């Protein structure tokens, strides 16, 4: 199993166990944004190839670093025939992603 998926499964198990014991939500639980390709399809009605998605992703991470002075989190994802580390963003950051994509496309 992929390392990123193992970590996600472990976290999900810990969150569920915490919820069952305490009846509450785990403080480490994060809600993640849609990926860039999905945002492009759903918000901008655009289909992009691997090269275009990579270019847009590089633009987004550059803007993210400017705004937050740090790198976004990474996880392993099967992309274009290989497992690759890709950046992921929280749901709260998704509005920034949409804004940065819009600027990139204009």
Topology:
Blueprint: H1 3-22, H2 36-44, H3 50-68, E1 73-79, E2 82-88, H4 94-105
Antiparallel strand pairs: 1-2
Quick one: overall form? globular
SS field, number of helical segments: 4
Class derived from helix and strand content: alpha+beta
Average predicted local confidence, pLDDT: 84
In terms of per-residue confidence, which ranges show pLDDT below 50 for 5 or more consecutive residues?
A: none
Work out the number of β strands: 2
Distance between the termini: 40 Å
Q: What would you call the quaternary organization?
A: single chain
Reading side by side through the largest sheet, how are the strands ordered?
1-2
Based on CA atoms alone, the radius of gyration comes out at 16 Å
Helicity, in percent?
A: 55-70%
How many strands, which pairing sense, and closed or not: the largest β-sheet? 2 strands, antiparallel
Our estimate of the beta-strand percent is 5-15%
Order of helices and strands: HHHEEH
């Amino acid at each position: 199993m992929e390392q990123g998926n193992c970590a996600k499964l472990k976290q999900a198990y810990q969150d569920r166990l915490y919820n069952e014991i305490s009846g509450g939500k785990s403080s480490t639980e994060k809600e993640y944004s849609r990926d860039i390709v999905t945002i492009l399809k759903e918000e901008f009605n655009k289909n992009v190839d691997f090269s275009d998605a990579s270019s847009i992703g590089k633009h987004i991470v550059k803007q993210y670093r400017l705004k937050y002075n740090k790198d976004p989190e990474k996880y392993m994802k099967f992309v274009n025939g290989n497992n690759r580390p890709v950046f992921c963003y929280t749901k709260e950051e998704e509005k920034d992603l949409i804004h940065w994509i819009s600027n990139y496309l204009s």
